[in-house]
Amino acid sequence: MALKKEDYPISVQFDFNTGVFEPQEKSVERKVSDMVKMFHDKTAVESMIKAGDPLVYEIFYYGFKTSASDMALGTTRIQPGKVGDEYYMTKGHFHEAFDQPEIYFCVKGEGYLLMETREGEFQAEKWTPGTISHIPPMWAHRVVNTGKEPLVFVATYHLAAGHTYTEVEEKGFLKCLVEKDGKATFVLNDKRK
Ligand code: PAN
Ligand code: ZN
Protein backbone atom coordinates (compact mmCIF):
# COMPACT_ATOMS: atom_id res chain seq x y z
CA MET A 1 0.00 0.00 0.00
CA ALA A 2 1.37 3.43 -0.90
CA LEU A 3 2.45 5.58 2.00
CA LYS A 4 0.65 8.87 2.49
CA LYS A 5 2.53 12.08 3.13
CA GLU A 6 1.80 11.92 6.88
CA ASP A 7 3.21 8.38 7.16
CA TYR A 8 6.83 9.49 6.63
CA PRO A 9 9.15 10.15 9.63
CA ILE A 10 9.61 13.74 10.70
CA SER A 11 11.96 15.53 13.10
CA VAL A 12 11.74 18.91 14.77
CA GLN A 13 14.58 20.90 16.28
CA PHE A 14 14.18 21.77 19.98
CA ASP A 15 15.97 24.60 21.78
CA PHE A 16 16.69 23.55 25.40
CA ASN A 17 17.04 27.15 26.44
CA THR A 18 13.84 28.66 25.04
CA GLY A 19 11.63 25.56 24.98
CA VAL A 20 10.65 26.32 21.38
CA PHE A 21 10.92 23.80 18.53
CA GLU A 22 10.61 24.19 14.76
CA PRO A 23 8.69 23.39 12.74
CA GLN A 24 5.61 23.50 14.94
CA GLU A 25 1.92 23.25 14.24
CA LYS A 26 0.79 25.96 16.63
CA SER A 27 1.55 27.78 19.83
CA VAL A 28 -0.86 28.87 22.54
CA GLU A 29 -0.49 31.61 25.16
CA ARG A 30 -2.11 31.56 28.59
CA LYS A 31 -2.40 34.81 30.49
CA VAL A 32 -3.67 35.52 34.00
CA SER A 33 -7.14 36.28 32.51
CA ASP A 34 -7.29 32.73 31.11
CA MET A 35 -6.81 31.32 34.61
CA VAL A 36 -9.11 33.44 36.77
CA LYS A 37 -10.56 30.42 38.55
CA MET A 38 -7.21 28.73 39.15
CA PHE A 39 -5.40 31.23 41.40
CA HIS A 40 -6.67 31.53 44.97
CA ASP A 41 -6.16 35.30 45.51
CA LYS A 42 -8.98 36.82 43.42
CA THR A 43 -8.02 40.42 44.33
CA ALA A 44 -4.50 39.82 43.03
CA VAL A 45 -5.96 38.22 39.87
CA GLU A 46 -8.10 41.31 39.16
CA SER A 47 -5.35 43.83 39.78
CA MET A 48 -2.87 41.91 37.62
CA ILE A 49 -5.37 41.78 34.75
CA LYS A 50 -5.94 45.54 35.07
CA ALA A 51 -2.19 46.12 35.16
CA GLY A 52 -1.68 44.48 31.75
CA ASP A 53 -2.67 40.82 32.06
CA PRO A 54 0.79 39.19 32.02
CA LEU A 55 1.71 36.02 30.19
CA VAL A 56 1.87 32.96 32.49
CA TYR A 57 2.85 30.20 30.06
CA GLU A 58 3.06 29.13 26.42
CA ILE A 59 2.56 25.78 24.74
CA PHE A 60 4.36 24.82 21.51
CA TYR A 61 2.64 21.94 19.80
CA TYR A 62 2.91 19.35 17.04
CA GLY A 63 0.48 16.48 16.48
CA PHE A 64 2.11 13.58 14.64
CA LYS A 65 -0.87 12.00 12.96
CA THR A 66 -0.27 9.05 10.66
CA SER A 67 -2.77 6.74 8.97
CA ALA A 68 -2.57 4.34 11.90
CA SER A 69 -1.58 6.37 14.96
CA ASP A 70 -1.47 9.74 16.68
CA MET A 71 1.22 11.04 19.02
CA ALA A 72 1.46 14.60 20.26
CA LEU A 73 4.52 16.60 21.24
CA GLY A 74 3.96 19.65 23.38
CA THR A 75 6.57 21.79 25.08
CA THR A 76 5.58 24.26 27.76
CA ARG A 77 7.42 27.34 29.00
CA ILE A 78 6.12 28.75 32.30
CA GLN A 79 7.33 32.23 33.21
CA PRO A 80 8.65 32.90 36.71
CA GLY A 81 6.19 34.92 38.78
CA LYS A 82 3.30 34.86 41.23
CA VAL A 83 -0.33 35.91 41.46
CA GLY A 84 -0.43 37.22 45.03
CA ASP A 85 1.66 34.64 46.90
CA GLU A 86 0.88 31.76 44.51
CA TYR A 87 3.44 30.72 41.91
CA TYR A 88 2.68 30.69 38.18
CA MET A 89 1.52 27.28 36.99
CA THR A 90 -0.34 25.50 34.21
CA LYS A 91 -4.12 25.20 34.35
CA GLY A 92 -3.98 21.46 34.90
CA HIS A 93 -6.35 18.83 33.56
CA PHE A 94 -7.46 15.20 33.48
CA HIS A 95 -7.24 13.21 30.28
CA GLU A 96 -10.71 12.35 29.05
CA ALA A 97 -9.81 8.78 28.14
CA PHE A 98 -9.43 6.48 31.17
CA ASP A 99 -6.38 4.67 29.77
CA GLN A 100 -4.18 7.55 28.61
CA PRO A 101 -0.92 8.38 30.41
CA GLU A 102 1.71 10.99 29.61
CA ILE A 103 5.47 11.56 29.93
CA TYR A 104 6.79 14.95 31.15
CA PHE A 105 10.51 15.83 30.89
CA CYS A 106 11.79 18.89 32.77
CA VAL A 107 14.62 20.47 30.78
CA LYS A 108 15.01 23.88 32.42
CA GLY A 109 14.09 25.64 35.66
CA GLU A 110 12.70 24.24 38.87
CA GLY A 111 9.31 23.52 40.33
CA TYR A 112 6.83 20.78 41.06
CA LEU A 113 4.55 18.46 39.15
CA LEU A 114 1.28 18.10 41.09
CA MET A 115 -0.90 15.07 40.43
CA GLU A 116 -4.19 13.96 41.92
CA THR A 117 -6.80 11.27 41.34
CA ARG A 118 -10.56 11.76 41.57
CA GLU A 119 -10.45 9.61 44.70
CA GLY A 120 -8.21 12.19 46.38
CA GLU A 121 -4.73 10.60 46.12
CA PHE A 122 -2.26 13.47 45.80
CA GLN A 123 1.39 13.33 44.81
CA ALA A 124 3.91 16.10 44.10
CA GLU A 125 7.20 15.48 42.30
CA LYS A 126 10.06 17.94 42.80
CA TRP A 127 11.45 18.97 39.42
CA THR A 128 14.94 19.99 38.38
CA PRO A 129 16.41 19.81 34.86
CA GLY A 130 16.58 16.14 33.91
CA THR A 131 13.57 14.92 35.89
CA ILE A 132 11.32 12.74 33.75
CA SER A 133 7.92 11.87 35.22
CA HIS A 134 5.32 9.36 34.18
CA ILE A 135 1.76 10.53 34.74
CA PRO A 136 -0.44 7.44 34.92
CA PRO A 137 -3.94 7.48 33.43
CA MET A 138 -6.64 9.08 35.62
CA TRP A 139 -4.27 11.45 37.45
CA ALA A 140 -4.89 15.18 36.92
CA HIS A 141 -1.62 17.03 36.32
CA ARG A 142 -0.33 20.57 36.78
CA VAL A 143 3.19 22.05 36.77
CA VAL A 144 4.22 24.93 39.07
CA ASN A 145 7.26 27.15 38.47
CA THR A 146 8.80 27.94 41.88
CA GLY A 147 12.08 29.24 40.42
CA LYS A 148 13.40 32.56 39.23
CA GLU A 149 13.76 31.63 35.56
CA PRO A 150 11.36 30.12 33.01
CA LEU A 151 10.53 26.46 33.59
CA VAL A 152 10.56 24.43 30.37
CA PHE A 153 9.24 20.88 29.95
CA VAL A 154 8.54 18.46 27.12
CA ALA A 155 5.36 16.36 27.03
CA THR A 156 4.36 13.41 24.88
CA TYR A 157 0.94 11.79 24.79
CA HIS A 158 -1.60 10.32 22.43
CA LEU A 159 -4.14 12.62 20.83
CA ALA A 160 -6.72 10.05 21.88
CA ALA A 161 -6.14 11.26 25.47
CA GLY A 162 -8.35 14.35 25.20
CA HIS A 163 -8.29 17.08 27.85
CA THR A 164 -10.85 18.03 30.44
CA TYR A 165 -10.31 21.18 32.52
CA THR A 166 -13.59 21.78 34.33
CA GLU A 167 -13.00 19.60 37.40
CA VAL A 168 -9.61 21.16 38.09
CA GLU A 169 -11.09 24.60 37.47
CA GLU A 170 -13.81 23.99 40.06
CA LYS A 171 -11.85 22.12 42.73
CA GLY A 172 -8.18 22.86 42.11
CA PHE A 173 -5.57 20.45 43.46
CA LEU A 174 -5.44 19.39 47.11
CA LYS A 175 -2.43 21.63 47.72
CA CYS A 176 -1.24 24.98 46.32
CA LEU A 177 2.32 26.25 46.19
CA VAL A 178 2.81 29.69 47.72
CA GLU A 179 5.84 31.73 48.69
CA LYS A 180 6.23 31.99 52.49
CA ASP A 181 9.31 33.63 54.02
CA GLY A 182 10.96 33.47 50.60
CA LYS A 183 10.42 29.71 50.26
CA ALA A 184 8.08 27.56 48.16
CA THR A 185 5.58 26.11 50.63
CA PHE A 186 2.64 23.73 50.21
CA VAL A 187 -0.64 24.94 51.69
CA LEU A 188 -4.04 23.29 51.69
CA ASN A 189 -6.25 24.63 48.88
CA ASP A 190 -9.00 26.91 50.35
CA LYS A 191 -11.63 25.10 48.26
CA ARG A 192 -10.83 21.84 50.08
CA LYS A 193 -10.84 23.12 53.67
C1 PAN B 1 0.55 19.24 28.31
C2 PAN B 1 -0.27 20.48 28.73
C3 PAN B 1 0.53 21.77 28.77
C4 PAN B 1 -0.29 22.96 29.30
O1 PAN B 1 0.93 19.32 26.98
O2 PAN B 1 -1.38 20.60 27.88
O3 PAN B 1 1.63 21.62 29.62
O4 PAN B 1 -1.03 22.66 30.45
P1 PAN B 1 -2.62 22.74 30.44
O5 PAN B 1 -3.11 21.91 29.29
O6 PAN B 1 -3.02 22.18 31.77
O7 PAN B 1 -2.98 24.17 30.25
C5 PAN B 1 -0.31 18.03 28.60
O8 PAN B 1 -0.43 17.63 29.73
N1 PAN B 1 -1.00 17.48 27.57
O9 PAN B 1 -1.79 16.42 27.80
ZN1 ZN C 1 -1.96 15.98 29.88
Automatic annotation (TrEMBL):
Record EC number? 5.3.1.9
- Please state what class of enzyme this protein is: isomerase
Q: Does the keyword Isomerase apply?
A: yes
The source's superkingdom equals Bacteria
> Which GO cellular component terms are attached?
cytoplasm
Reaction(s) catalyzed by this protein? Answer: alpha-D-glucose 6-phosphate = beta-D-fructose 6-phosphate
Annotated GO molecular function terms are: glucose-6-phosphate isomerase activity
Keyword annotations from UniProtKB, A to Z: Gluconeogenesis, Glycolysis, Isomerase
Domain Glucose-6-phosphate isomerase prokaryote, first and last residues per copy: 30-187
Q: In which pathway does it act?
A: Carbohydrate degradation; glycolysis; D-glyceraldehyde 3-phosphate and glycerone phosphate from D-glucose: step 2/4
Picking any one GO biological process from the record gives: glycolytic process
Q: Which family does it belong to?
A: Belongs to the archaeal-type GPI family.
Protein name, UniProt field? glucose-6-phosphate isomerase
The protein's organism comes out as Pelolinea submarina
